[in-house]
Structures are given as C-alpha cells and as structure tokens.
From TrEMBL:
<dbReference type="InterPro" id="IPR020846">
    <property type="entry name" value="MFS_dom"/>
</dbReference>
<feature type="transmembrane region" description="Helical">
    <location>
        <begin position="416"/>
        <end position="439"/>
    </location>
</feature>
<feature type="transmembrane region" description="Helical">
    <location>
        <begin position="197"/>
        <end position="215"/>
    </location>
</feature>
<feature type="transmembrane region" description="Helical">
    <location>
        <begin position="546"/>
        <end position="564"/>
    </location>
</feature>
<dbReference type="GO" id="GO:0016020">
    <property type="term" value="C:membrane"/>
</dbReference>
<dbReference type="GO" id="GO:0015791">
    <property type="term" value="P:polyol transmembrane transport"/>
</dbReference>
<dbReference type="InterPro" id="IPR050814">
    <property type="entry name" value="Myo-inositol_Transporter"/>
</dbReference>
<comment type="similarity">
    <text>Belongs to the major facilitator superfamily. Sugar transporter (TC 2.A.1.1) family.</text>
</comment>
<feature type="transmembrane region" description="Helical">
    <location>
        <begin position="255"/>
        <end position="274"/>
    </location>
</feature>
<keyword id="KW-0813">Transport</keyword>
<dbReference type="GO" id="GO:0015798">
    <property type="term" value="P:myo-inositol transport"/>
</dbReference>
<dbReference type="InterPro" id="IPR036259">
    <property type="entry name" value="MFS_trans_sf"/>
</dbReference>
<feature type="transmembrane region" description="Helical">
    <location>
        <begin position="474"/>
        <end position="492"/>
    </location>
</feature>
<dbReference type="GO" id="GO:0022857">
    <property type="term" value="F:transmembrane transporter activity"/>
</dbReference>
<feature type="region of interest" description="Disordered">
    <location>
        <begin position="1"/>
        <end position="40"/>
    </location>
</feature>
<feature type="transmembrane region" description="Helical">
    <location>
        <begin position="221"/>
        <end position="243"/>
    </location>
</feature>
<keyword id="KW-1133">Transmembrane helix</keyword>
Length: 628
C-alpha cells in the first residue's frame, strides 16, 4: 500500500447545516482523546526517524552497524539512514556520491527498473496466486461429473434436497478449513519457518491434496481431501502478499501487492482451461471418472512449481531481522536492490520500524479488543468487514464455483457449459487488470458505488433470461452475456477494493490483527456461499438465486454509501480524522449528499455546494458525493 502524505496546511471548513449541528462538539468531546492517542501511535510508526538531528542519526546508525555485525558497512548504513529519514532530500546530502544520487534519481524516474532477483520473486508470487485461483475453480467442471459417481447427484426439480447440500458441503470444504483452522496457522508457520518456509509448506499441501482429491472413492473421502486443501489455501493467501510487500521497494509495493488479485483471476481462468482440456478424457481400465480426477489433480502442478521455486528467492529481510539475523537480512536486501546504499536505507528503516513497534506494543493493551472498544478502530473494522462480506455475497463465487452447473440448467451442453465458464474466467482476468489504475484514480468508494448497482442489474438480467423460451437463440446468449457483464462490473470494483481498503483503513498499530479479522470474515462467508448455492439453485431455481444475490448487491450499495468513507490518497492523520467522524453523522451526511446530488445532476436544479464533512480540505466530500 502506498499513501501520499500531504503536508499542506488546511483550514477546517465551516459547517452550517442543521443536520450536522453539534457533530463537531461530539467529536471533540468523545473522540479527541482517543484520536490523539491513535495519532501519536501512528506518528511513531509512520516515521520513527522524524525529528532526529543528522548528528544523532549518524551516531545511531554507526552504533547499529557495530551492534549487529555490520561494522564493515557502517558508512554505507549511515548514508542509508540519512536517506531513510527523508527520501526527498537526497540531492542535498553531502555524504552521498554522484553515483549514489544517480541511482536514487533513477529509482524514482524508472521505478520498474529492478534486479532480476526481484522479478524472479514476482514470478514466484504470481504463480502462487495462480495456484490459489486454480484451487478455487477446477471444482467447477468437476461438479458436472463426481456427484453422479458418488451417488449425490441432485434430481431435477427436487428442490433443496440432501444431495444439493452434500454437493455444497464438498465444494465448500476448503473454505471451512480456512475459517476454522487454516488462517489461524498463518502466524505460527511464518514464525517458525519464515515466509519462504510457509509458502513451501502450503504449496506442498496444495500439491499433495490436489493429487489426493484425484484418487478419492466416495464423497466423504473427497470432502476430507478438500478440507485438507484449506491448509494450503488459507496460510498461502495471507503469506504471499505479505512476503511480496516486505521484499518490494516502496515505490512499486502497491502494484506488486495488487498483482495477487490479478494473477488469482488468471489462475481461475486457467482452472477452467483444465476443465475444458480434461472433460472428454475417457475412463481407463480400473479408473472411473478419470476426467474429473484429472481436473482436480491439475491444480497441483503449479503448486509443485512454486514449492520448487520458492527457495531460489531471498528470505524476507523483515522476518530475518525479527529473528535477529541482520547480516542475512542485509544480504537479502543486496539481492533485491541495485546498490548497497539502497539496501542499507531499507535495512535501517526496517530496523527502526521494528523498534518502534516493540515500543508501541508496550503501550497498548489487547489489540483485538481495541478493534471494537476504540471508536476509530471500530469504524474501520465495520467498513472493511462489510466489504469482505459483500465480496462473497455479491454472487461472484456462486458463479466461480457453480457456473458450469448453472449453464447446464440453462440448457447448455456440458461442453458448452465449461466453455462458457472459461469465458467468465477470461473476463474476470481481463477486467482485473484496470483495477491497478482505477483504484488510485477513481477511488475505492466510487468504484463500489458504481460496481454494486451494475452487478445487481446484470444478475437480474441473467436470472430473467432463464424465463426466455429455450427454443429462442436469445435464451443462452443473454444468460452468458449477463454473467460476463456482471464479471466485468465486479473485477475492477468489488473485486480488488476489499483487500486494498482493509490494508489501509486500520491504524498501523492494529493493522495486522485488523487484516486478520477481515480475512477471516472473507473466508467464513466464502464457505457459506459455496455450501448454500446448490440448495438455493434447487429450491429457488436460477431465477430466484440470481435475484437473491442481486438484492445483496443493492444492500451493499446502501451500506457502502452510508458506512464506507473514502481512503484513497489520504495520509495517516487524515485517515484518523475520517474514521473519527461518528457513524451516525457520516450516514446522515451521505443521505443528504445523495439527495443534493440527485437534485443537481438528475433534476438539473441549481443548488449550492455542500460543505465538506472532514477537517481536511473537501476533496473527499466533493469527489465522493458525485457518485452518490
């Protein structure tokens, strides 16, 4: 995540509207002490080197080098410490050489010019994301075959039968494991084995359980194998983005972390390719259902490639420093940066951040409880968990896991259904790429307010298409078109926003535990969706099921309008101000702004501008309410 710090002085705006009367007093009386405490902690973590004189900084850096077995690099580390304190003034630092300045200048002007080792790491992380996508999507095609072999094929028109629930249980098994066990193993695996070790173990779990799925002989056996797959999915999904963030230079960190979403979408598409490739494979002697077994087993191949590749990458410098292995951390950074000065800069800054985090830990109580007892944190948790919940209940994974089944119910042949599912995966991948640009230009909140209504409309269109007579060419065409348009609306909006929003909404001192809460919310409701969709299709038919998720998208629009503030390009102090506005005040303002913008843009009435809600300049207010 990259936040643009803003240093300009802003005058608090006047607020003369009756709907907001008294809100400033409320915030001042009830929020200011806690906000000040949060801001102090954030300030300490945002730049622990702020306020130090150059002389003190040089002495501290020299002492650091001697204490951590890096005395031979003392001068280089001193240079790095000066740059880390304020990266914008390197041109005027007399200690730097012309070559140092040239490298640092090029780092800004050519930010994607990085060592080959870093790009090797990017390839490995992208492949790990693709494994994630394949683990999720290969079951889509297999759903057409294994239920009948294992005696749980739902009878047409039988409603929400036992068989429907069993199919949903088998599909949802990995996400149940993620919620109750897998995600909670992330911290001990990382602590004991490091980032590379955690990725290796989870990739091997993915490889072995994919093969295991392919040799099962009953639905309970397949359920157990898929449950174990969650031990690979959960910790890997939490570790890989953290690993890439800890190894990436600050200027491209956001882009590399966003690649997780993009390449997961690619993996989902690749899973459908495997379904197409193996659907017509005939059974061989003694092996029944070879096609779906190969589908499920195919996801293990890229997982094995990740396991083979990961130890060719350097370990996370931050993890090595947490273990006290500073020379190894410096060696790792030297592989990930062009010069020793850049490596020394990042090494020293990571060190002072770790020291600041230890100090903050001593001053805070139970961080998990503070997510709910501190109003500023509670509002961030409310918004991030809402978006994680909506990423599942917007309906995307109902399609990702069951699109082949839905297409068959719509009258497609099995081959056409899998091909149409591949189209869904391709659209998801293609439209995920623009999110890297739109999320920092259009804004998180605006993307949501556009994405939810479009998704609702496309789901309704898809559901209504099932009432078109099957003899009409429009029947199949509109079903596929509706799903593709839904995906195009999802991929740059509700797709990438929840993870990005959750990563920046929390104060730094509770960000890790806050992100854990948001991720656990995601996986739990992923399990709920995967479990219930077959029963919904049986009880409500595709028309009712698509209408159900369309309704949730309208709910998501209203909740985002009222309870999700914008976070794009805000400093830590501004984020504290945004989340310190009482929920009732924020919701009341958004309702008034929605009516104001309806009169202004729809009825074309001449109305004055609304005063901004926050203490900093009104960029949020003016940009956000335009989409309301």
């Amino acid at each position: 995540m990259s936040l643009n710090e803003k240093s300009e002085t802003r005058q608090p705006p006047s607020r003369d509207q009756s709907s907001l009367k008294g809100s400033e007093t409320f915030i001042e009386q009830h929020e200011s002490p806690r906000r000040a405490s949060t801001q102090n902690l954030n300030a300490k973590l945002a730049n622990p080197l702020a306020g130090l004189s150059h002389e003190q900084l040089m002495a501290d850096a020299e002492q650091f080098a001697k204490t951590h077995e890096l005395a031979e690099y003392a001068e280089t580390i001193q240079k790095g410490a000066l740059i880390a304190q304020d990266p914008t003034v390197f041109e005027s630092l007399p200690m730097l050489t012309d070559e140092d300045r040239r490298v640092l200048r090029r780092e800004v002007t050519h930010k994607w010019d990085q060592p080959k080792t870093l790009y090797y790491l990017v390839v490995m992380c992208s492949l790990a994301a693709a494994v994630q996508g394949m683990d999720e999507s290969v079951i889509n095609g297999a759903n057409l075959f294994f239920p009948s072999q294992f005696g749980i094929q739902p009878a047409p028109g039988a409603g929400a039968s036992r068989e429907q629930w069993l199919v949903g249980l088998v599909n949802s098994a990995p996400y149940l494991c993620c919620g109750v066990l897998g995600c909670w193993l992330t911290e001990p695996l990382n602590r004991w084995l490091g980032r590379r070790g955690a990725i290796f173990v989870t990739a091997m779990f993915s490889f072995l359980t994919c093969i295991w799925q392919g040799v099962t002989n009953s639905w309970p056996h397949l359920f157990i194998a898929r449950f174990a797959l969650g031990l690979g999915i959960g910790p890997k999904s939490a570790t890989v983005p953290v690993y890439s963030a800890e190894c990436a230079p600050p200027l491209i960190r956001g882009g590399l972390v966003m690649m997780w979403q993009t390449w997961t979408a690619f993996g989902i598409m690749l899973g459908y390719v495997m379904d197409i490739a193996f659907q017509n494979v005939p059974d061989s002697s003694g092996i029944r259902g070879l096609n779906w077994r190969l589908m499920l087993g195919s996801a293990g191949i890229p997982a094995l490639l990740v396991a083979v590749q990961v130890y060719g990458c350097p370990e996370s410098p931050r993890w090595l420093m947490m273990k006290g292995r500073y020379p190894k951390a410096f060696e790792s950074l030297r592989r990930l940066r062009h010069t020793e000065v850049q490596a020394a800069r990042d090494l020293y800054y990571i060190h002072v951040l770790l020291e600041a985090e230890k100090e903050v830990d001593k001053k805070t109580g139970n961080k998990f409880l503070e997510l709910f007892t501190v109003p500023r944190n509670r509002r961030a948790a409310q918004a991030s968990c809402l978006l994680m919940f909506m990423q599942q209940f917007c309906g995307v994974n109902a399609i990702a896991y069951y699109s082949s089944t839905i297409f068959v119910q719509g009258g497609f042949s099995q081959t056409a259904a899998i091909l149409a599912s591949f189209g869904f995966g391709a659209v998801n991948f293609v439209f995920a790429a623009p999110a890297v640009w739109t999320i920092d230009t259009f804004g998180r909140r605006n993307l949501l307010l556009v994405s939810f209504p479009l998704m609702a409309a496309m789901l309704l269109m898809t559901g209504f298409a099932f009432w078109i007579p099957a003899s009409s060419p429009a029947h199949l065409g509109i079903i596929a078109l509706g799903i593709y348009l839904f995906t195009a609306a999802y991929s740059p909006g509700e797709g990438p926003v929840p993870f990005t929003y959750s990563a920046e909404a929390y104060p730094l001192y509770v960000r890790d535990i806050g992100m854990s809460l948001a991720t656990a919310t995601l996986w739990f409701f992923n399990f709920v969706v995967a479990l219930t969709v077959p029963a919904l299709l049986g009880a409500w038919t595709p028309q009712g099921t698509f209408a159900w998720f369309a309704g949730w998208n309208l709910f998501g629009f209203v909740m985002s309008l009222l309870f999700v503030p914008e976070t794009k390009a805000l400093s830590l102090e501004e984020l504290d101000q945004v989340f310190s506005v009482p929920t009732r005040t924020h919701a009341a303002y958004q309702l008034k702004a929605a009516g104001h913008n309806f009169r202004r843009h729809v009825l074309r009435q001449k109305v004055g501008k609304m005063p901004p809600l926050y203490e900093h300049e009104g960029a949020i207010g003016e940009k956000t309410y335009a989409a309301a």
